[in-house]
Amino acid sequence: MTQFSRLKLEIKPSAARLTLARPEVRNAFDDVLIAELTRALEELRASYEAAPERSPRALVLAGEGAVFCAGADMNWMRRSVAYTQSENEADARRMAAMYRTLDELPIPTIARVHGTSLGGGMGLLACCDMAVAVDTAQFGFTEARLGIAPAVISPFVLPKIGGSAARRYFLTAEIFGAVQAKEIGLVHEIVPAGELDPAVDRLVAALAENGPRAVSAAKRLIREALARNRDDALENAIRAIAGLRASPEGQEGLGAFLEKRPPSWKL
């Protein structure tokens, strides 16, 4: 695996852990962090595609220090003031590609949220399949305070929280707590600070019980169903389940169930 200057990547069979490692700037984004995140996610995707049964069963995304991710780095934002229209578009495309790579990663993803998640950090949170947050965590789509909008993250945030919540929180740019984040579907579980890692570990353990190809297929079905009309979604689902049942993993899973033994993928 590549060495990173703004990230820490630890890989174990049960889960990979990808940590934003810029605590001095509250894990804020800049162009280097975006490039490194994209590269790390692409390497994890390639690892899965080469050997799903040997790849990590989950990815935990975390932040080092006091917060999860405080959005955009101020120095990066200062540089962008002088960008041309085309330079701004290229910058936004690189960020969008990072979010898309996370959103479409075949490995299930868990956001481990503490402290604060703002702006672009909310995009990371929305792209993860699951999110566990401490009860004191704070959240905000704060772009409007800077005279901009949460544009690049919106295709990923809207399927997660829906239009009604977006109409409020995108427009007010207010800071809200973990309870509100759970109510709008951004967070799945709220725990005291001392229980954050055990809660994440429980999700990792649950994922490790399942066939890695089946989990990946389920992720893809959800994403594709949201993008299709109902008839197309049903046909896609029919083809998917037929293929999974006939696959080696599907045959192994059904055989293990009928024979009352652990499946071969169980760690």
Annotation keywords:
267 residues, six-stranded mixed sheet, 51% helix, single chain, 9 strands, 10 helices, alpha/beta, three-stranded mixed sheet
Describe the model.
The model has no long low-confidence stretch (mean pLDDT 91). Helix 8 packs antiparallel against helix 9 (230-246). The strands form 2 sheets. The chain has a 6-stranded mixed β-sheet with strand order 1-2-3-4-6-9, with helices on both faces. It has a 3-stranded mixed β-sheet with strand order 5-7-8. It has 10 helices and 9 strands. Strand 1 (7-11) and strand 2 (16-20) form a beta hairpin. It has helices at residues 31-50, 74-80, 85-103, 120-127, 154-172, 178-183, 196-208, 212-227, 230-246, 248-259; strands at 7-11, 16-20, 59-63, 109-113, 116-118, 130-134, 138-140, 176-177, 189-191.
